[in-house]
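Chain A, query sequence.
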Amino acid sequence: RTDDELDNEVAARMYRQQRLTSTENPLELVTVIDESALHRPVGGPEVLRDQLRQIAALAELDTVTMSVLPTGVGAHAGLASSFTILRFGELDEPDMAHVEHTIGALILDKDGDVTRARLAFERVLSDALGPAESLELVQRLAGL
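Chain A, predicted structure.
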């Protein structure tokens, strides 16, 4: 990806994070994080600690439900790639699935594909720790 593409992706992610705390029509986020990602010090231990603290702070928002999928689960439906299911609620737009992979991303909007992504998410979520237990784990790892 070009520098402009990366800049646009970062700007979009930052905007979505701001929308989580918006007083007018905030976004809602339900997320499952693979526990192994919470131990991977990309950028070094200090960067990881800051990231964990940011995750913990966001997980305490009313608009965020965060669960951690323990490494002990082993192979799971989200192991091959990360994915996001986008629901547009009152906008009367169809749900979509956004699948990230090593060389880019796919946007899936066919009903069957979105249904498969939703089922995969539900399977992963059912194996994950609950939100309170997940927050405690992230806080402990962050040294909070």
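The chain has a mean pLDDT of 92. The CA atoms of residues 86 and 92 lie 12 Å apart.
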